[in-house]
Write a structure and sequence with these properties.
alpha+beta; seven-stranded mixed sheet; three-stranded antiparallel sheet; 39% helix; binds phenylalanine
């Protein structure tokens, strides 16, 4: 047995002196020491020749040797692995091969158009303001002059989370406008993009949630002419210089006077088609001069300040811009639809 132990000692030295150079040498080493007919295996075969009283001691020495030889193998291998990823050559990896293509996602069309809208108004000095989607009655309705019996509060339109006190999913992003006005820092020139919720039957034209961008500009001497010019600029930037606009008198509790704005139909250019229901015009937003009551509700002096506000649905703008005829496509996550926007910026 002494002889065997001496032999093991010699093997250890041999292993220590092997230069670690390359995968081929490593494989050679593996076969010689760790292979099925290798030295370690053979030494275990010697066990039966060791006298019984010494078996335990020999077994220990042998196990340690086995671990030593394996550890050497592993450390050698990891050196080769890391150097081959660095140089690519030794392990036979060809780093000049083209990689597997990574499928690139695309921006969702709603995000795309939202960013475009933000960018256009940004150029006019409007900054983005955001606020909560779960809102209280005051910020969604009361402060906006929507009194208790206003039809928009109807259970059919609004998703209530809690009643008395009322908590609801905001039905428009005007809540952010109220929150900004309440801060009392004037002038205000903001746009409020965000998701809104209404209890509507889902169809090609309506959904129970959608996205809006509302805008608010309050300063001294803000006039309807400013509103008109701002929105005209927006429409031209968004849809091109040929687009015409028209204002129709309308009613919103939070603006006075109020107007809905149409653009000339992008499909038929006014001659009449299905999209514009043969009128030549398509409605895109609601707008008006901020009602003095709102200013007072938010402690802004309505004798000194005036403002305009507007609100549009991003889905509607996107449908017109990209000629999409079903609003449900935006939330179905069908990649065949989404993929079409890969190159849109
Ligand atoms: N808040 C209105 C809506 O959600 C849109 C709007 C905003 C209209 C501002 C006029 C002025 O329908």
């Amino acid at each position: 047995m002494e002889q065997l132990i001496q032999q093991i000692e010699n093997y250890k030295q041999e292993i220590d002196n092997i230069p670690m150079n390359g995968a081929a040498a490593l494989e050679e080493y593996r076969i010689k020491f760790l292979g099925t007919k290798g030295i370690v295996k053979n030494l275990f075969g010697e066990m039966k020749n060791v006298e019984p009283a010494k078996k335990k001691e020999f077994g220990q020495v042998l196990n340690e040797f086995k671990q030593f030889a394996e550890a050497k193998y592993e450390s050698w291998q990891s050196t080769i692995d890391s150097s081959s990823t660095a140089t690519g050559s030794k392990a036979g990896i060809d780093l000049s091969l083209p990689g597997d293509p990574l499928p690139l996602g695309s921006q969702h069309p709603i995000t795309l158009v939202r960013n475009q809208i933000v960018h256009i108004f940004g150029r006019l000095g409007f900054s983005v303001a955001e606020g909560p989607e779960i809102e209280d009655d005051w910020h969604n309705f009361t402060a906006l002059n929507l009194d208790e019996n206003h039809p928009a509060r109807d259970m059919q339109d609004t998703f209530y989370i809690h009643q008395k006190p009322d908590w609801l999913l905001r039905t428009h992003t005007s809540n952010v406008q109220v929150r900004e006005m309440e801060k009392g820092k004037l002038p205000i020139r903001i746009i409020c993009p965000g998701r809104v919720y209404r209890n509507e039957t889902i169809s090609a034209r309506a959904h129970c949630f959608f996205h809006q961008v509302e805008g608010l500009y309050i300063d001294d001497q803000v006039s309807f002419a400013d509103l008109k010019q701002t929105l005209y600029f927006f429409v031209q930037e968004m849809f091109g210089n040929d687009v015409k606009i028209r204002f129709r008198p309308s009613y919103f509790p939070f603006t006075e006077p109020s107007a809905e704005m149409d653009i000339s139909c992008l499909i038929c250019h006014g001659s009449g088609c299905n999209v514009c229901k043969h009128t030549g015009w398509v409605e895109i937003l609601g707008s008006g001069m901020v009602h003095p009551k709102l200013l007072e509700n938010c402690h802004i002096d309505s004798n000194k300040y005036t403002g305009f506000a507007f609100g549009m649905g991003i889905e509607r703008i996107t449908m017109l811009k990209y000629q999409i005829n079903d609003l449900r496509l935006f939330s179905e996550n069908d990649v065949r639809f989404l993929k079409q926007f890969t190159s849109a910026v």
